[in-house]
Fold this protein.
Amino acid sequence: MPPKALPYHPKQGEVLRCDFSGLVPPEMDKVRWVVVLSPKFVGRRNLATVIPLSTTPPPAIEAFHVKLDKDPAPNASGDDVWAKCDMVMTVSFARLSAYWTSKDGGRRNYVSLHISPLELGKIRQATLAGIGLGYLWK
């Protein structure tokens, strides 16, 4: 049975879990936190463009890497967190899940996780760099 799709369109800057299983290495192939980059587009239902987050520092810091001010994940490890903006991907809502803490009367209690608007701006700029369009950011 396929996973239940995220039941809403996430907002830009929202932090979700994404299941990248089934991709081919060196593509991402595990569950990881992501930041939603795309807005809600009319006629583009059930898809979101995301940037993966990682606690593994890049071997060399490039214009397409953003070190976040703090780890947006609950129960953060204390490690630095990097947005890997060269790994931008558009995924189905079926790959995405929101963080929830407990069930209340059989329903999940979702907690909205977000990065700051400043960090979202840095990720937008770095994403352009990651696809070779960094010169467009002025």
Q: What stands out?
A: Helices lie at 117-130. The mean pLDDT is 90. The longest helix spans residues 117-130.
